[in-house]
Specification:
Strand content: 15-25%
Helix content: 25-40%
Bound molecules: flavin-adenine dinucleotide
Largest sheet: 7 strands, mixed
Order of helices and strands: EHEHEHEEHEEEEHEEEHHEHEEHEEEHHH
Radius of gyration: 22 Å
CATH superfamily of the largest domain: FAD/NAD(P)-binding domain
């Protein structure tokens, strides 16, 4: 059944140069970069805080190193320095010789990210969903937002879709991919949560053979259906006094709100089931509590907007370099089972899913631009990639690299009176380097495609 909605005059809530839809890691850096390069910027975020998966889903790890040296800087480094002043971020024990370089406190990041936007004078509207795009003559003029006062329009010269799900680009008619080639399923989702009241010293002194036996029994109980599936990488060695385990998988369609609601509560129940089981079996866990679950289920993958370039596994593992590079990526092909069994290719570290030690691949601007709507870009996990390519470039630091590149490109394109696809790429790269972005091995002009 469909209904016809009557035509309506819609008041304009805000007008700007660059409208960023979605305030996750990609949206924040896009907005800050565009504003610092002279654009007036509005950011719309549907949740009460910024950070997206990083804060709302309690995803608190960063990957910045090629396992020899750090290769991701720019706004990522600035964010780290700001958080460090408050003790809200700390280096991984293996820094900088592991991909995992930092862990952070999500409550702190909510403040850091908002400070960066406020200082850059980005007009930020939380609690505001970016709804239908306004598309006229093949260009996007802005979006409609349903507010407490009624429907309002936000108008802009360039729109950056950083919604993670590519909501605005898809509704504006830009083609997209969804799921893996074999069955159209996206990566499994995970409810992240924080446990407390663990007596770490007692857990650590639990004899290793007994700890192994408990984990084996837990896996057997899960296999027998007495316990829900859990991430195969989880072990008691991860337990800290208070910590956030990446443990609790579910699978389904993150674009179906009813299914998402069901999966969210299912995963919260799963989290309690694991610790109810462990509480009676491991000394030190007697008083363990689940202190907080993610406000949102952790969503890894949904729409991947089809761009001018599509990042694939070969480009990642072959450390491909692009003339339109805006930064570097280092993360592995990291696929969590789309059926929700808890299997992840992260477990196969050392196999062919890793970027070689000391090497990195380029993140090209073209994966954020498209051939359908020239004044609309995407940034973050909805950028153009294959299912496999996405599993690497979706991590936060890579999304932040994309955001910084796209935001800077948007402001420079507007200043030059061009579309983003026609931006002066060497000038963009020079601006990014000046802003601290690590950008090496860019193919020389003569090799440009
Ligand atoms: C369980 C899990 C574990 C992970 N582990 C790691 C890890 O260890 N390290 C790592 O770096 N990465 C990890 N990732 C990946 C990473 O966290 C995300 O891919 C990344 O944060 C995506 O950033 P983003 O800005 O593109 O999207 P998101 O973080 O999804 O942000 C999108 C934002 O847009 C908002 N939004 C959506 N639709 C609208 C709309 N219509 N209007 C207004 N606002 C809207 C959302 O509320 C959200 O704030 C993990 C992801 C998951 C789910």
């Amino acid at each position: 059944m469909v209904i016809t909605v009557p035509e309506q005059e819609v008041p304009v809530l805000a007008e700007c140069d660059v409208l960023v839809c979605g305030g996750g890691t990609a949206g924040i850096t896009a907005a800050v970069a565009a504003a610092r390069h002279g654009a007036s910027v509005v950011l719309l975020e549907r949740w009460p805080m910024l950070g997206g998966m990083a804060t709302a889903a309690l995803v608190t790890g960063w990957h910045r190193s090629d396992r020899e040296k750090m290769v991701i800087y720019g706004l990522v480094e600035e964010t780290a320095q700001r958080a460090e002043k408050h003790g809200w971020i700390w280096k991984d024990g293996q820094y900088p010789r592991a991909h995992e370089t930092h862990w952070f406190e999500p409550e702190g990041m909510k403040i850091v990210y908002h400070d960066m936007l406020d200082e850059a004078k980005v007009r930020t509207f939380c609690y505001t969903v970016a709804g239908e795009p306004i598309v006229e003559g093949g260009r996007i003029r802005g979006v409609l937002a349903e507010t407490k006062q009624g429907r309002r329009a936000v108008l802009a010269k360039i729109v950056v879709d950083a919604t993670g799900d590519g909501d605005v680009a898809a509704k504006a008619g830009v083609p997209f991919e969804f799921g893996r080639a074999s069955d159209g399923r996206v990566q499994g989702m995970t409810m992240m949560y924080r446990v407390c009241n663990i007596v770490e010293a007692k857990v650590k002194s639990f004899p290793p053979d007994k700890a192994r036996a408990v984990m084996e029994a837990m896996r057997a109980a899960s296999k027998a259906g007495e316990l829900p599936p859990f991430n195969h990488a989880f072990g008691l060695g991860h337990a800290r006094n208070r910590f956030i385990p990446n443990m609790c998988p579910v699978a389904g369609n993150p674009l179906d709100e009813e299914e998402l609601t069901r999966l969210t509560i299912k995963s919260r129940r799963q989290a309690h089931a694991y610790w109810d089981w462990l509480r009676t079996r491991v000394p030190g866990l007697e008083k363990v509590q689940i202190e907080q679950t993610g406000m949102s289920l952790g969503i890894r993958e949904s729409r991947r907007i089809r761009g001018l370039k599509t990042l694939d596994a070969e480009m990642i593992l072959g450390t491909a370099k692009h003339p339109d590079a805006i930064g570097h990526g280092i993360w592995m092909i990291d696929i969590h089972d789309p059926l929700g069994t808890g299997y992840t290719t992260w477990n196969d570290r050392g196999q062919r899913n890793m970027v070689p030690v000391g090497k990195s691949y380029h993140i090209p601007l073209g994966m954020c631009l498209n051939a359908t709507v020239p004044n609309l870009a995407v940034a973050g996990r909805c950028a153009s990639s294959t299912h496999e390519g996405h599993s690497s470039v979706r991590v936060q630091t890579h999304c932040m690299v994309m955001g910084q590149g796209v935001g800077t490109a948007a402001a420079m394109a507007l200043a030059a009176g061009r579309d983003m696809a026609k931006v002066d790429v060497p000038a963009l790269q020079a601006a990014l380097r000046k802003d601290g972005v690590y950008l090496e091995d860019v193919p020389v002009e003569a090799e440009r495609t």
